[in-house]
Amino acid sequence: MTDLLGYMLWFAVLIGLAVPAAVWMNRVYAGVPAFARTERTILRMAGIDGSRGMGWAEYAIAVLILNAVGFFLLYAILRLQGVLPQNPDGIVGMSPDLAFNTAISFITNTNWQAYSGEAQLSYFSQMAGLTVQNFLSAATGMAVGVAVIRGFTEPKGATLGNFWTDMIRSVLWILLPMSVLLALFLALQGVPQTLLGAIQATGVEGQEQIIARGPAAAQIAIKQLGTNGGGFFGVNSAHPFENPTIASDLAQTWAILLIPVAFCFLFGIMAKDRRQGVAIFASMAVMFVIGLATIHLYETWGNPLLGSGANMEGKEQRFGAMLSSLWAASTTAASNGSVNAMHDSFMPLSGLVMMVFMQIGEVIFGGVGAGLYGMLLYVVLAVFLAGLMVGRTPEYLGRKIEAREVTLAMLAFLSMPLGILVFAALAVTVPAATAAIQDAGPHGLSEALYAYSSATGNNGSAFAGWGAALPWHTTAIGLVMLLGRYAIILPMLAIAGSLIRKQPAPESAGTFPTHGPLFVTLLVLTVVILGALTFFPVLALGPIAEETARLAGQTF
Amino acid sequence: MSKHPILRTPAGQLQRAAIRDAFVKLDPRRLKSNPVMFATAVTALLTTVLGLRDLVSGTGGAGATLHISAWLWIAVLFANYAEALAEGRGRARADSLRATKADTMVRLLAEANTPPEEATMVASSGLREGQYVLVTAGDIIPTDAEVVHGVASVDESAITGESAPVIRESGGDRSSVTGGTRIVSDSLVLRVTAEPGKSFLDRMIALVEGAERQRTPNEIALNILLAGLTLIFLFVVVTLEPFASFSGAQIPVVALAALFVTLIPTTIGALLSAIGIAGMDRLVRANVIAKSGRAVEAAGDVDTLLLDKTGTITFGNRMADDLFPAPGVTREALAVAAGLASLADETPEGKSVTEKAREILGRGLPEAPGAEAVPFTAQTRLSGVDLPDGRRLRKGAVDAIMRLTGQSLPAALAHSVETIARSGGTPLLVAEDRAILGVIHLKDIIKPGVRERFADLRAMGIRTVMITGDNPLTAAAIAAEAGVDDFLAEATPEMKLDYIRKAQAGGRLVAMCGDGSNDAPALAQADVGVAMNSGTPAAKEAANLIDLDSDPTKLIEVVMVGKGLLISRGSLTTFSIANDVAKYFAILPAIFVTAYPGLSVLNVMQLASPTSAILSAVIFNALIIVALIPLALRGVKYAPSSAAALLRRNLLVYGAGGLIVPFLGIKAVDMALAALNLA
Lengths: 556, 679
Fold this sequence. Notes:
The complex is a heterodimer of chains A (556) and B (679). By secondary structure, chain A is an all-alpha fold. Chain A has helices spanning 2-30, 36-45, 56-80, 96-107, 117-120, 123-153, 163-189, 216-225, 246-270, 274-301, 320-333, 348-359, 370-387, 403-427, 431-434, 441-456, 471-499, 516-532, 536-551, and strands spanning 199-202, 208-211, 395-396, 399-400. In chain A, the strands form two sheets. A two-stranded antiparallel ribbon of chain A has the order 1-2. In chain A, strands 3-4 form a two-stranded antiparallel ribbon. In chain B, the strands form four sheets. A seven-stranded mixed beta sheet of chain B has the order 10-22-21-20-11-18-19, sandwiched between helices. In chain B, strands 2-1-3-9-4-7 form a six-stranded antiparallel beta sheet, with no helix packed on it. In chain B, helix 4 (62-99) packs parallel to helix 23 (610-634) and helix 8 packs antiparallel against helix 22 (580-592). The longest helix of chain B is centred in the N-terminal third of the chain and has 38 residues, at 62-99. Chain B starts with 10 loop residues before the first helix and ends with a helix. Mean pLDDT of chain B is 86; it is low at 1-8. The chains are: A mainly alpha (556), B alpha+beta (679).
């Protein structure tokens, strides 16, 4: 009961933060006059005219250019970190396949960590490499999100906006101020922010130990706010230096969901019909709450085979089952990927919920910007499927959904089963890949499935036992991260570009209503039947089989 | 509803032809246009080959494999049967039309004014556009043409089903004739307006036969979606093999094939083209010819209807509604004068006045032998009678009577006149010699039921706009009485065009009907233009639908057919996709249970055995197609209501129904199989 109350309070605070954030974001993306000079000056230095509106193709090319440059820069830094400055612990350059994997991981906002931060990254790599991409990949997602919203909501003939301007605005006026506040708060809670090297310490039992530290607070702030999730330390937010207290834990869970939730409301504001944003938020919230409840109940019930009480394996004592469940649900729903407990050790059906959250394409709040445009993909499909039932060509916000939009939506939609099913099937078949699997039976299958779900969904979290560092996987996962990011961004921008050319029909009694409980039900069912059920067969062999075996008294 | 003299093909014969066609349509070249059924056929072929291989090599399980493949083939055949049945209904109609298109010899004239003696006889099939022909009573008009000379009555029943002959004459809006109709009196000189094989009749035959059927935009989009889903389920099934073998489960290929076919949206895939053909057939039976499928679909999207007042909203004739006497005149005296003044007036207006007079008097009008009729002329704008006793009774427009009598209106009468005019009626004054006796209130009478119809349309989100040549005052009054949302008074063709453009710029889709040549630009501009078959060739060319009955209210019916078509498609798609849930629960436990016995918890339907579970799902999948054929052909029931209400209802029936029905159906098939010892 107190748990329920706690969750409700947590959710209320989240909404209370997200609504004003959405109002602020709307102002920022429309252009705040007082900021105009700063924006213009920065863009002029790069030789860019930020006032010119772009069509979808131009916008998409700008996205690809920025991300490609980011990739090569980050790849170079990682390979050369041994000779670059700010390397007090003398860490050597990364291997080519790992650098490839890591660079893609950070430009795609996945932050899959096939490396361990404190052992394989210099401070320079962390700050000039990863943290920079944390900002840029998040801003990319937000800019694309805003461009897509414009496509759905702006009047006929308007443009999708200017990518560089949207980008700059996302970084300067949204991510940066929020990160500074959060970083200060985290530092206050005890998260280190220093450029000094690791500490040599003697433990209470007299043993020598090396305690890694570094400029963590700043990176953690953006890793959460930008739904990046790549931790400063290998064990991520389970590490006491990343997440020392309950207050820091709560602040981080809010930070994970803040911008993705705000995007729902931003959609409503930009559509000049807040009900539309609320409907999308409600659809996401319904699925989130069901998933969270499942995880919470399974974790607090625990596993009788391993003793009574909550399932505490792989969890931090200071967080317990509840805060670990909340984090697990939030981080997988929001395409964040940071962890405060080891997902590998969660109960089988908790693992199932987390996988489903990622497999449906990270559309339950999802990545910053990305969650919303991902959900709009389902909206297009839901509206098209059911919209015919009211006797009109399906339309959303007055714009007709026709062959072109459906084709693009299906193209984007194919990327999830392709990345997850095909690549996970290879991962359990190809000998070079199967070595990564730590556990036998269904849990082993879950490990591989989780990894590819996480990568395709651009989440970045992993089942800890799985050996992600095998060259097969660093390469294959690098590829599916690209697939999961750009095979959705490009078609969604194209859909936005196609919709903005259409004259919206005025709303009437004959209009398919896209707000209210009926639409929420329809959208949730579409996500479940088209998204989740596609993975039902393989989930049956993984977590569901594991659960039935557990009930029969067998563990893996 | 059809009043066509079609030879009704007996139902049995239609079905036999459809069954034969179902096999003919197995031709891969025909199947490949339907990705879902093509995938099903390929899967069926694969399992058949595997079954035969097992049979030859004597491996176990050949029987079950062949049993499953048989049902996969049956699903394909059912889909073909549905399409063939839909086509067959149109074909019967086409055959009867073709019978009227017999090749005859016609008299070709070199020029429009060539004397008939110089005509040369040529075959009607060789007529080219722009040539002149002479047709006389008893001839079949060889092809579409425009009347150049003459007046004749023409029997158009072959096309419209209307048995009363219609007048066709040169010039004006009644100048076009249609090939296949028969001239019953007089003779006409015609200028051919259609190239061979392109006549209206040819188009109509092609259309009802479905030969020229183009896919409509929504159908194309839906097909893409279905193809995409098919591809996704292909990923699901193909990758299931490695996942299963990692898990130590061996899944026979036939089980994967069964899972694939049951997951892909076969129900809607099988019925999609039948729905489209049946929708066009419904239009044809309403005597509307669509020049493209796109127009039918657009009709469903229409949210603004431009309706001509005359004939659609009102009967088209003004009628006497009431009489108001001048001060000092009795109502009876006015009635007698008005009635007598109208005795010789044969127009509907005149008749309605005498009728009203009789109604007021409660008896017949007094006899007036030897009265002399004074007909209406455009100059005097009044009419009446001169009685033998010298009294001259007149009725006419207010200003005309005032000029005649030289009197000004008494205040009370002036008030009546103004009230009538303001209410949209027409005041007519009645005078005896120089005395004004009173005023007749003539008004447009709204057709019964029109108001309710417009209320229905409003509930569906469709705005109705009345087009009239009346002045704004009159138009406003009629508009209010009929319950239209907007009106266009003193409408000219340019104003109509302008109104349509403006509405379209605001994102609206507009439908209108028209018949005159001056309607052509507006018909072409409208998203849905319905031309009256009696209209000019220009109007018919500009429109995308042609109403053979020339009934302007047909527009509303066309909208309903369009909506019904889309609703049928959407409902069956939703049903088809919702069906997948149950199929997962039938097949997955069946194929995984050997590797993980615990997964039998997924067998929520408690199906008898893995074999019967798979078979039941496949059989249900095939049977649901045939069960839904009548629905596909008839169309989902559609009562006018708001989109929100429709969505709620259809989502409940086809969405929730689609989730639940297969659980029950698969269980029922399983029990039947167990009872028959088939699996």
